[in-house]
Amino acid sequence: MTADRTVDTAPWHKTACILCENNCGLLIQLDDRRFAKIRGDKEHVASAGYTCNKALRLDHYQNGGVRLDTPLRREPDGTFTEIDWDTAISEIAKRLTEVRNRYGGDKIFYYGGGGQGNHLGGAYSGALRRAVGARYRSSALAQEKTGEGWVDAHLTGGHTTGDFEHAEVSIFLGKNPWQSHGVPRARTVLQQIAKDPARSMIVLDPVRTETADLADFHLRVRPGTDAWCLSAILAVIVQDDLVDHAFLAEHTTDSAAVLCALSGIDVPAFAEICGVPEELVRATAHRIGTATSVATYEDLGVQQSPNSTLISYLNKLLWLLTGNFAKRGGMHPHSWMAPLAGYSRDIKRTPVTGAPILGGMVPCNSIAEEILTDHPDRFRAMIIESANPAHSLADSAKFRQALEALDLVVVLDVALTETARRADYVLPAASQFEKWEATFFNLEFPHNTFHLRAPVLDPLPGTLPEPEIYARLLRELGTVSGGKLAVLRAAAKLGRRPYKWAFAALLAADRSLAGVAPYVLYETLGPTLPDGARSAAVLWALSQRIAKVYPAAMRRAGHRDAAALFDAILAGRSGVTFTIDDYADAWDYLPHPGKRIPLAIPELLHAVRELATTPAVHTTSEFPFILAAGERRAFTANTIFRDATWRHRDPDGSLRLNPDDAAHLGLATGDRARITTSRGTAVSTVEINDRMQPGHAALPNGLGLDLPDGDGTRRTGVAANELTDVTWRDAIAGTPWHKHVPARIEPLQDA
Ligand SMILES: Nc1nc2c(c(=O)[nH]1)N[C@H]1C(S)=C(S)[C@@H](COP(=O)(O)OP(=O)(O)OC[C@H]3O[C@@H](n4cnc5c(=O)[nH]c(N)nc54)[C@H](O)[C@@H]3O)O[C@H]1N2
Ligand SMILES: Nc1nc2c(c(=O)[nH]1)N[C@H]1C(S)=C(S)[C@@H](COP(=O)(O)OP(=O)(O)OC[C@H]3O[C@@H](n4cnc5c(=O)[nH]c(N)nc54)[C@H](O)[C@@H]3O)O[C@H]1N2
Ligand code: SF4
Ligand SMILES: [Mo]
Questions:
Q1: What are the UniProt keywords, alphabetically (predicted)?
Q2: How far is the CA of 303 from the centre of ligand 1 (A)?
Q3: Mean pLDDT, the chain, as a whole number?
Q4: pTM tops 0.90
Q5: Residue of 739, 740, 741 best suited for mutating to test ligand 1, as the one with most atoms within 8 Å of CB
Q6: Cis bond upstream, residue 197 (ω within 30)
Q7: CA 696 to CA 743: how far, in whole Å?
């Protein structure tokens, strides 16, 4: 018998998974600082106990990699010196000020602001941007979702989400939810659909994925030809009159132009181009056109392939022409805790190359081009938080060159990443289990949830949560006078109601404070919050916003007012439902006059008409394969794990090849092959896989990290973006074609 507190009697800490946008609720039992046991949290408002295989490996994030535990400054000889926080903050504030004074604050570029599990820090970054006059920013959204967002801005005015739990027909377009999730409790939901004879699943994917295995209709398109496939399906819907004319008449405008463009499409010719049997195209169209409800999810397979913005439009026409909006099992706009991006039809332009800024984001593929020039308006400094762009952006070599060309690079991260290694200053963040955290991936309808996670552990000594890092920089910059902060601090001590009045009065008197409001909240309300939840201060303002914008939906979720909602968020260790929408609310979320959806997007209708003569093949004799550079698999998780041992299977992340291609090249599973593209070359282990179609090869995403090994580093697997090209991108949104990289594959004779 022992009196020691063993793991079995240790408490379970409530938190959430940080590996994908679903952020499933977790319970973690600690053994000192190690995650001894992890299981799903059955009380969690969104996931109800569900997790996938990856969550159970999270100790490899918390304890597997090499953590930063002191700020670093890069010296002229390229080495890093450890410095203390005060030195780091004062030097960075001084150098940001120098850049602003010399070139203008708009030359300070901000990248990131949150990964799959951490957005709370980013909520404070806007205050720093405002303080230094930064205007341009970007994040990974601008290499996947900005084209879709622009289409949404035209049609429904904002993001829509699919009700896959109830949809009669579920469509996954370049999306493999079995591996990548995105749909809450994805594997359970997919299996339920597959088991129910009354419901159907339609999958468009060149690969026979695990999701496609469960589908009733697998449209195995040739890579990069979804625009033809979707146009053909839509043409059948129009030509066979499966259109919901009553919905179009009552709820939309300009439908005639859309129906006209689609009615002229040559279905057999388009089916031929996309490689899907015409009968399957027709059967799919009839299944969609006769269903009581249809929900769709488009993701990277089409968003990172040719014609991506056009495809987003065609996808949305599928459910709009058939009237599957704002009803059970259909597509819905939803409430937000805080929108992830802006939605605007207007396209602003970057200062140097005139690249399109959609949703407030500079296209990722244009960032290096904006910097690597002698144009006077080029960016001079970059602040990077919770992102690893030197690994995740197209053409890593070019991005590294761009980082070297800047006067100042500041990186906030938990680890010395490929990006951090090129920074002038690296600031060590507390991990996502060592601080108050949350994400704004609150995209559900009708029950929308938010989860403020409490820390599971104290911060590793030497690290700080991002809100504190931003606050220290803002204090150093003297952004808000001590007097103003003192007034609010005094009000906060009296209670949240007096605080609310004082805050409103101060903002009314000094509008300039609005831009730095998160910082002001952090400094004044923050210290009064329970259990050190200072970083939650910004959620007080977001609760006020919810109460103002969605009062009825908030009350349906059981919150009397903003104050009650904020209390529920602070107390809700398994998350809270912050709104319950009803179907009629969907129409209120439409920003357009008359609450009608304008269906015609002239540029994209033009693109539909041009499709018959648009090139559908991008291979050449030099590059005869199409490489999907960055597939989601059972053991990939962006670059969140910096410990290769978390991967149980396929440790090197193999290049997947069709058996016929492998035979032709003389390759067997386990052999090594050289992959060459217009931008680079890499060597990979090969896996023969009959899920791939001939001519199509795939590499996993997130591999090829340079991990510490003795005195140097060692790379496992291929860093996909050593092979990608920044010019290979969508004409409208500037988003990359990572899933469609022409490549050559050659066997490599091992010594
Ligand atoms: N396991 C795991 N899950 C993740 C992540 C992870 O790293 N690992 N990352 C998360 C992130 S950041 C994101 S954005 C999501 C992405 O989630 P997904 O978009 O589902 O992920 P991918 O595997 O990149 O691409 C989806 C599918 O597109 C297919 N595809 C390739 N080319 C084409 C094409 O031309 N047409 C069509 N129709 N399909 C094509 C691929 O075969 C693949 O099955 O996953 C999230 N979830
Ligand atoms: N070729 C190719 N490129 C791709 C893709 C692809 O499919 N193919 N996918 C793209 C997509 S969809 C995405 S979303 C991006 C993802 O790429 P990025 O947006 O660059 O993000 P992650 O790889 O998720 O890296 C997150 C970073 O956050 C750090 N981090 C973890 N926890 C914390 C914390 O608490 N605080 C701070 N400050 N940092 C932390 C990690 O160490 C890591 O450096 O990659 C894109 N790039
Ligand atoms: S589905 Fe996503 S959030 Fe849930 S356990 Fe898996 S990786 Fe984590
Ligand atoms: Mo992503």
A1: 4Fe-4S, Iron, Iron-sulfur, Metal-binding, Oxidoreductase
A2: 9
A3: 96
A4: yes
A5: 739
A6: no
A7: 10
